[in-house]
């Protein structure tokens, strides 16, 4: 695929992390334009080791290959799917009546103050799954916060505006497994159209295609990451905070052609969340006569709770 035919723009994070003032300024503008225009961007130069990503994929495949009863040992009661295993068919898009064709395991934030019961469950059958998962979590957290620094500057906020709220935030690393499709789906696809809840999402290349975004004309466009590219998209919290200036774009994962139904799909998104007490009240610089306030004030925790109920993970 050539750059000219790409669905989403491409930026190099090392331009911001290591570039001179002019290079950083250009990166900030490119990132802001991408998030305002289409809500998605591809990022290279992020420095997350490919071997770490590859090794975690292997460990995740080993976990999902376990039998259902074994996997269900790692479902965490009362966690609303925010930690541990969530079995097949439990999550749905907020507007859908049919569950997505997936199961997943979520790794949440861990701090020194947490008790053993508050931490992520260890997977005895695949011990490297959590070891690698924690390492990848920290890598995504670091690079995600770097992107938020650039966005803060673009929004004329202090560079560390988001860092104050994301320190010990409730971000999630999710390993998603879409099993082989064995019969005609009941009007469901692997992941029905939706928008993410959080500030931004970082997604490393999936084991198979199918990710699509919906553009402003209602057309579905396929996203095909190249090489070590990470796909980043705006979540609803950031859209809400910026009064729709930054776009939380609808996206989905479609089923493969029938001749590829036997192939599973694995993807690894990182959902970057702030701490629950962060206010999502619209930023005053994002309000104009043409764009009055679109959202009432709410905290990040209140909004997350609302959305988890909509998608069926919380009762």
UniProtKB/TrEMBL annotation:
Family: Belongs to the iron/ascorbate-dependent oxidoreductase family.
GO MF annotation terms: metal ion binding; oxidoreductase activity
UniProt keyword annotations, A-Z: Iron, Metal-binding, Oxidoreductase
Origin: domain of life: Bacteria
Pfam families in the record: 2OG-FeII_Oxy (PF03171), DIOX_N (PF14226)
Organism the protein comes from: Neolewinella lacunae
Parts forming coiled coils: none
Domain Fe2OG dioxygenase: 169-274
InterPro entries: DIOX_N, IPNS-like_FE2OG_OXY, IPNS-like_sf, Oxoglu/Fe-dep_dioxygenase_dom
Name used for this protein in its record: Isopenicillin N synthase family oxygenase
């Amino acid at each position: 695929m050539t750059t000219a035919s790409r669905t989403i723009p491409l930026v190099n994070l090392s331009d911001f992390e290591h570039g001179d003032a002019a290079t950083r300024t250009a990166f900030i503008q490119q990132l802001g334009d991408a998030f305002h225009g289409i809500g998605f961007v591809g990022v290279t130069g992020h420095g997350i080791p490919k071997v770490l990503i590859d090794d975690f994929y292997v460990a995740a495949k080993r976990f999902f290959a376990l039998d259902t009863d074994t996997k269900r040992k790692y479902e965490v009661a009362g966690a609303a799917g925010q930690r541990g295993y969530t079995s097949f068919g439990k999550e749905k898009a907020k507007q859908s009546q049919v569950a997505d064709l997936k199961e997943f395991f979520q790794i949440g934030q861990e701090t020194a103050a947490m008790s053993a019961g508050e931490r992520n469950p260890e997977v005895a059958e695949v011990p490297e799954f959590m070891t690698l998962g924690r390492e990848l979590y920290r890598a995504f957290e670091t690079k995600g916060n770097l992107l938020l620094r650039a966005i803060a500057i673009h929004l004329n906020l202090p560079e560390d505006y988001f860092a104050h709220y994301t320190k010990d935030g409730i971000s999630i690393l999710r390993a998603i497994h879409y099993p082989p499709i064995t019969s005609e789906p009941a009007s469901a696809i692997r992941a029905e159209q939706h928008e993410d809840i959080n500030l931004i999402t970082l997604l490393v290349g999936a084991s198979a295609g199918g990710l699509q975004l919906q553009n402003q004309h209602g057309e579905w466009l396929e996203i095909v990451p190249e090489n070590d590219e990470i796909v980043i998209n705006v979540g609803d919290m950031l859209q809400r905070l910026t009064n729709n200036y930054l776009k939380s774009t609808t996206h989905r994962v479609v089923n493969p052609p029938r001749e590829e139904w036997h192939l599973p799909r694995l993807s690894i998104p990182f959902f970057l969340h702030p701490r629950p007490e962060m206010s999502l009240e619209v930023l005053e610089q994002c309000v104009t006569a043409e764009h009055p306030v679109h959202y009432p004030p709410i905290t990040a925790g209140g909004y997350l709770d609302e959305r988890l109920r909509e998608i069926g993970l919380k009762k």
